[in-house]
Write a structure and sequence with these properties.
- The structure is a single chain.
- With 380 residues, the chain is an alpha/beta fold.
- Helices cover 30% and strands 29% of the residues.
- The protein has twelve helices and 19 strands.
- The strands form five sheets. Strands 1, 4, 5, 6, 7, 10, 11 and 12 form an eight-stranded mixed β-sheet that branches.
- Helix 11 links the parallel strand 17 and strand 18.
- The radius of gyration is 28 Å and the shape is elongated.
- The chain binds magnesium ion.
- The site of magnesium ion has 5 residues, from strand 13 and helix 8.
- The site of magnesium ion (MG) has 5 residues, from strand 13 and helix 8.
Length: 380
């Protein structure tokens, strides 16, 4: 079923700590809200997403929100949650979607499966929301002393999105008094059939400071990037080649604009690639004489700096040097140590290996050296 999503982000969220409302705080590279919006924008049946924000939040909202034609301009909320939802519904009214899903901005880990379950239940019922059955024992206590047990059978912990037929919930809000309770309560009170569908443990609401630790760990699990790099340099006259910053004696040298460290170039390009920030040539144009003969360490340091600035860390680097000669094996550990020094990684996260091409091709004819590298980044 086609639906519009209404994201309620007008709350102040003071219990979660921090200087800004929790929905505008960062989870890795993007805000809590930006992640929540993306969860709906990416859903194939979502036709529009509209966010209700506080009056003071326009600037925070604009920062890092995804560009997507389905994302409508935000609407300013009211003094209560009900007033905010009403404002959002009114703004969606002219589009008259068949269904609307109303969701807390502070639940960024809502999954497509949860959204699908809510959608599937609207139609057979007039409204639906996800929830988790209570599994812990329930006790009533007074002054720290047990006063009696409570039966948990049939009790559910509510999550969002709460889903409704659009015309139904708009009508209920228009008829409701200011400060009416939440949308499910409105629908239930009006005699509408409301279904409970299974929620998801990760679809929790960021409420207390500890919730941010959980959210960031979850985001880190999800945000992994991989990049690859490849480079070739031809042999020219000389007495040594430089590979991963290590001088390896040879009867020729590698030619290039910089020190021609083909292996370090491949590693650097793998890091820029993982960030989708181009390659060495974009950051250090060969047309600029400044980089002539430069130690390639400058390039790698720049890539490492960008990784940190973007909020990632390097999980590992793997590089293969492809040549018939010189022999790489005896120098591989020194190369690993040099890459470890420059990147600040443990040496166990850096692999340097070598292969020949069985005397085939330009590397087989010993006309030059090629290098292949892969790097994985994780956030934070
Ligand atoms: Mg190069």
């Amino acid at each position: 079923m086609e639906f519009a999503a209404l994201i309620v982000a007008a709350g102040r969220g003071v219990r979660a700590g921090g200087e800004r409302p929790k929905q505008f705080q960062m989870l890795g590279e993007r805000s809590v809200l930006a992640r929540t919006l993306a969860a709906f924008l990416d859903h194939p049946h979502c036709s529009a997403v509209l966010c209700v924000i506080g009056e003071a939040d326009a600037q925070d909202y604009a920062h890092g929100v995804p560009t997507d034609p389905k994302l409508l301009p935000p609407v300013i909320g009211g003094d209560t949650r009900q007033a905010s939802v009403r404002a959002g519904l009114e703004a969606l009214a002219e589009r008259s979607p068949r269904a609307v899903l109303i969701h807390d901005a502070a639940r960024p880990f809502v999954t497509p499966a949860v959204i699908d379950r809510v959608l599937a239940a609207i139609g057979p019922s007039e409204a639906a929301f996800p929830a988790l059955p209570l599994v812990d024992a329930l006790w009533h206590a007074e002054d720290g002393q047990v006063a009696g047990a409570r039966d948990r059978a049939g009790l559910w912990r509510a999550q969002t999105p709460q889903g409704f037929l659009f015309e139904d919930i708009l009508g209920l809000h228009r008829a409701a008094e200011t400060g009416a309770p939440d949308d499910v309560t409105l629908a239930h009170a009006a005699g509408h059939k409301v279904s409970v569908v299974m929620g998801d443990g990760n679809n929790f609401k960021i409420t207390l400071p500890g919730d941010f630790d959980r959210a960031r760990a979850l985001e880190a699990d999800l945000d992994v990037r991989t990049g690859t790099g490849y480079d070739v340099h031809a042999f020219g006259p000389g007495k040594a080649v430089i590979l991963c910053g290590v001088e390896v004696p040879h009867d020729r040298a590698l030619r290039g604009h910089s020190d021609a460290d083909v292996a370090m170039h491949a590693i650097t390009d793998a890091l820029f690639g993982a960030l989708a920030e181009g390659d060495i040539g974009r950051w250090f144009p060969p047309s600029e004489p400044e980089w002539k003969g430069a130690a390639s360490e400058i390039f790698l340091r720049k890539a490492v700096e960008r990784v940190a600035e973007r909020g990632y860390r390097i999980a590992n680097i793997d590089c293969t040097v492809i040549c018939e000669e010189p022999k790489i094996g005896p120098h591989a550990d020194a190369m690993r140590a040099e890459i470890a020094r420059i990147t600040g990684l443990g040496i166990d996260r850096i692999s340097i290996k070598a292969t020949t091409t069985e005397r085939l091709g330009f590397t087989g004819r010993a006309e030059g050296i090629a290098a292949d590298a892969a790097a994985t980044l994780v956030s934070p």
